[in-house]
Amino acid sequence: MEKTLQNNNENAKLSDFVESIEYIPVDLGENYIYGLILHGYDEKEELFFLGDLYSLYAVQKNGKLKNKIGRKGQGLGEYIQISNVSFDTTNKDIFIDASQTNKILKYNYNGNFLKSMFDTQWTDKLASGVLYNDNNFIVISESYDYRKEGLMDMLFGFGILDTLGNFQYQTPPPALKIKDREAKQHIQFMTGVARKSINKYLLIPSTGRVDTIYTANNNKIEPYLIIDNGPNHPQFKDIWVRGEQHIKDNSYIINHYKPALESKNHIFFSFLHKEDEYMVIINKKTGATSSARYNKYHSMGFGSKPGKLTSNENPGFLNDIDGGISEYPNGLSSKGNYWIYSKSIGELQEKVDELTEVQKKNIDPEKHQKLQELIAQFDDPDTPVIILMKLKEEI
Predict the structure, then answer these.
(1) CA–CA separation, 284 vs 70, rounded Å?
(2) Please, are residues 16 and 318 in contact by the beta-carbon 8 Å criterion?
(3) Three-state SS at 19
(4) Which of 1, 32, 51, 127 is most buried as measured by Cβ atoms within 10 A of its Cβ?
């Protein structure tokens, strides 16, 4: 990681990674989404799947609603709240982890309910999510803190379930590494975000400071990427400490709030170092690593918010294409050709308004004008917009 940080490109631009940007305003008719969540994009079928905690929709490439997936309720094929959504793109099936009703529900792309896969009552307080993966399911352990000490023997890291919900494999819980009572009082293992890309999940363990990213392979969870933190590898008892310990100890911290992703030629993940947030880019062909700073954090303490870079600071990730967003991606499309994002018209407007005069000089004026014209078409700032950024073959 130290070498990767040294290879940080302070002059990196979005056009170094992205070939083109497409904005797709979403029209859900009379349906309303509160807090848009973009779960995925099936490139072959040209379908987006998005919603909120209480609904899920299939949306066409033109932004028009195709159909709703299931509905809210407590009856057969209904859900109260959605914890996770996963896909079988081969058979065009969708799996909803319905946490409040403790079931894994299976639908097809047309929104028809097919079956309830299995009951997840046993996962209460033990698992944070269940995801379909190649004729089985990945289950991710619930986060751990000292209040769950009595459940320590029941907790795990990652697991593989068969289609009946039975454990086929599981990794030991990180909590087993805790040796002293004092550490337990200050430690919390946070569940990593998982997004599927190129037919595999890259799994960040349920702790922020790790040196291994995992994947599922042949009904097992195996290491996929080993990260050398060098001399700045943090002490395990300091894995999660309230306040600004991550700034003081100079360590490298994988950002478990951002998914690790894999495209055809590259692997991406996010890490924190001192006050800054970086994207790591690994070239799969050459093994070369580099990084680009894209955000500044004042603190990772509770209640902290990302800090804004001033006009004199170079985030190393300017959107020089049209002046829109320049963030770590929400996820990748099914074939790994696009970074995908979900924003509102109001968020796009805010981003455009934040541009400095210096930044505007480095943006394509024609494309920036088209973005402004798109924003101006909508009176409602909450109008959802899907953003597709087509990745370059070589970065």
Answers:
(1) 39
(2) no
(3) strand
(4) 51
Q: Which stretch of DSSP H or E encloses residue 137?
A: strand 136-141
pLDDT in tens, 70-100: 999 989 999 999 989 999 999 999 999 997 7
Q: Is 236 exposed, middle or buried (0-12, 13-18, 19+ CB in 10 A)?
A: middle
Can you tell me the distance from the alpha carbon of 356 to that of 306, in angstroms, rounded to the nearest whole number? 19
Residue closest to 137 by CA, chosen among 173, 174, 164 = 164
Cross-strand bridge partners of residue 78: 71
CB 124 within 8 A of CB 130: no
Burial of 25 (0-12, 13-18, 19+ CB in 10 A): middle
Q: Give CA–CA dist 127/158, Å, rounded.
A: 9
CA–chain centroid gap for 328, Å, is: 9
Q: What are the structure tokens assigned to 297, written together?
A: 């954090």
- Angle, vertex CA 297, rays to CA 293 and CA 301, nearest 5: 145
> Model-level pTM?
0.87
Locate 39 and state its tokens: 């779960």
Return d(Cα 326, Cα 352) in angstroms, integer. 11
242 pLDDT band, cuts 50/70/90, is very low
Instruction: Give yes or no for a contact between 335 and 341, defined as CB atoms under 8 angstroms apart.
Output: no
Contacts of 310 (CB under 8 A, 6+ apart): none
**Contact call for residues 382 and 346 (beta carbons, < 8 A):** yes
